[in-house]
Amino acid sequence: MTPNYALALFILGLVLCPRAFSQSVAVYVYHDDAPYRIDERVDLSQQWVNQFNQQQSSIHFEIQHIERPILNSVVESGQPYIILWANALWFKRRDPNVLSSEVLFWDADTLVSLVDNPIDFNHAEQLQGLKIGARFGHYYSDFDPLFKSGRITRVDAKSSPENYQSLLAGKIDGFLDSRSTIAYLQKNKVAGSNIYVSLNPQDAYSRHILVSKHNKILLPLINKVILEMKNDQAWQVKLESWGVTKLVNPFELDLQELNEI
Questions:
Q1: pTM across the whole model
Q2: What is the Cα–Cα distance from 152 to 127, expressed in whole angstroms?
Q3: Across the chain, what does the average pLDDT equal?
Q4: Residue pLDDT, tens place only, 82-121
Q5: Domain housing 147
Q6: At 234, phi and psi to the nearest 5?
Q7: What is the pLDDT of residue 241?
Q8: CA distances (Å), 157 to each of 134, 166, 188, in order?
Q9: Which of 218, 185, 178, 184 is nearest to 27 (CA)?
Q10: What is the domain-level CATH number for residue 192?
Q11: Distance CA 113, CA 136 (A)
Q12: Own/partner pairs for 156-160, CB < 8 Å, 24+ apart?
């Protein structure tokens, strides 16, 4: 049996009898922050995968946590992969053929400071002389040249709560984090009302599911479910509990609406 004939039979089976052909497929999650990974409870990644599995029966996603350097090696080696919560721009250099799903939601890296000493900026150069919290192994396009030159002091932490505690203790002037993580920290009272989130994000981006060319056949189904979930009120209520329902496309908002996010 030729590979193309076998693939055709598999597709036909999905259409005629999807449950009979249901297969388990690994989905990589390399984030170690809330809400994407929380050891003591079902996190957003697991909840999203559970919802996906409930809404269709052709494939069964199973989360596989992986460190970013190892995932980079997987992508570069040409192995099949599916990655949750990513953007194709972050992996295009490692795999020019990477494919992207519909948007899951929009996010941004931004600066968090204290309400008593709020920090807003238009360019990273304006923060010279400050101590800024960052995450081990994370790259910040606008800040890294200033970190390397010493014009801004980089203080690395293993987690967002660790950065928050350093901020409260006065060890740093602010810290960089994703708005989705900040929203979770605020929603779940991990961070108090004493924090100020800069109105000017360091970088805005959309989060997707990325697939290798080997898994291209799954992309239409993935996109179909993503669009269904956007119109599923019960799912939207679940998303609201994570504090990410206000993370929308910034290009669809005016200035006043952006300030209210």
A1: 0.77
A2: 7
A3: 85
A4: 999 999 988 999 999 999 999 998 888 889 999 999 999 9
A5: 108-203
A6: -65, -40
A7: 82
A8: 6, 9, 21
A9: 218
A10: 3.40.190.10
A11: 19
A12: 157/133, 159/32, 159/33, 159/135, 160/33, 160/34, 160/135, 160/185
